């Protein structure tokens, strides 16, 4: 490392959905800006293809901070956000000692949404500090405005009769608020509020989105006075997305080989993220819906969860590929053997979405999955489960017109097989589906433009690097 080379650490909180965008950001900064990157993670899963890929790169080091046991601090009602905050809090001494023992001084520390408690360590070592907000600009706006909403709203947000007005954004239906806002008496809500205060102490916020996708909201984040009230001080906003995963393909796996044999845009890909789980009954209904639709599919199946689906997230392990098919209707695999591929637990999602045989994605609308679908021009069936996914589903259907969604909220009511069958047919085989697909393809081009030299996200990333250098 020469003395002029910048050194940036990026912290990822536990969970593959958090780690993946951090790895991709690190790779971009190392590859295109020649920055030495240290990734700090307390995730227990070390077998992601990205990790293996990045370990071989010269400018990148991945450090696993010792994992922590929080079992004595939680009970069965402790929500996922509270658990994530506790994990990071407990890991702080480990994180501090890793930073203190680094051979090369850090020029900046970037933390993801749940890593903001590291702030005092960045202050102690006098390092520039940024938050990487891995979801949409819309979710960021809501998040920042929460301080104001908290003051002026009586009762529960979900009981409001009117949509929530967030400056510069589409109004948000009370049903679609993020999970931590569903119950104001839960500790998770208070942790979320604390997070929003911690954000205001950083030097800037990175978002995995792009100007053409969320221009109005980005503009409001930068200049709307009411929204800025939530931030207290104006913070630079860096829309640097879409972050694109590049995994080295060493061999074409079974799924890709199967896709190679299928017709152009004929396959529906079904997956609910790194930890999304359906109830046992919903899973059976989904299987029947797919079978009745007669649409060819690839389905990543995870064991159902009949408790709080939220809690399935932290228990998930992306590398676990034990067979999980016992939960499917009897005879399903035999009856669908020529029309579908059922993959246990984990698939190479980006490779699948970029395959020309894939024409639709039934997704839980995690932001990474959303971005991956859009950057491949794949239209979606939006099936939100937790976190901010209902907001993402609303944006995809009502604002961007690149998805359809069930009439009921899948977290509240069962989506029946006939409705699933109908949605699949609409997306894959109608004029409406075709028009949705065309819109998704336009967004693919818009994403490419944002990332190309001189594009909005390209420029934003350069500004970020310049800011780090100046500080
Ligand atoms: N992912 C994958 N294979 C799977 C499931 C998930 O590669 O079988 C990746 C997916 O491509 C995305 C991330 O895991 O990059 C999931 O992030 P997202 O924000 O969509 O949802 P989360 O898992 O955090 O709910």
Descriptive labels:
alpha/beta; single chain; Rossmann fold; 471 residues; 18 helices; binds uridine-5'-diphosphate; 6-stranded parallel sheet; 2 domains; globular
Walk me through this protein's architecture:
The protein is an alpha/beta fold and 471 residues long. It folds into 2 domains: 7-245 and 450-470, Rossmann fold; 254-447, Glycogen Phosphorylase B (Rossmann fold). The chain has 18 helices and 13 strands. The strands form 2 sheets. It has a 7-stranded parallel β-sheet with strand order 3-2-1-4-5-6-7, sandwiched between helices. The chain starts with 6 loop residues before the first strand and ends with a helix. Uridine-5'-diphosphate is lined by residues 15-17, 20, 271, 273-276, 300, 346-347, 349-350, 366-369, 372.
- The quaternary organization reads as single chain
Ligand types? uridine-5'-diphosphate
Ends distance: 19 Å
CATH class assignment of the largest domain: Alpha Beta
What form results from the Cα inertia axes? globular
- Provide the domain count: 2
Number of strands: 13
Q: How would you classify the helix and strand content by structural class? A: alpha/beta
Please state roughly what percent of the residues sit in beta strands, choosing from under 5%, 5-15%, 15-25%, 25-35%, 35-45% or over 45%.
5-15%
CATH level-two architecture of the largest domain: 3-Layer(aba) Sandwich
- List low-confidence stretches: 317-321
What is the radius of gyration computed over CA atoms, rounded to a whole number of angstroms? 22 Å
Question: How do the strands line up in the largest sheet?
Answer: 3-2-1-4-5-6-7
User: How many distinct helices?
Assistant: 18
For CATH, the homologous superfamily of the largest domain is named as: Glycogen Phosphorylase B
Most strands sheet: 7 strands, parallel
Mean pLDDT across every amino acid position: 91
Helicity, as a percent range: 40-55%
The CATH topology of the largest domain comes to: Rossmann fold
Family: Belongs to the UDP-glycosyltransferase family.
GO molecular function, one term: UDP-glycosyltransferase activity
Organism: Solanum lycopersicum
Keywords: Glycosyltransferase, Transferase
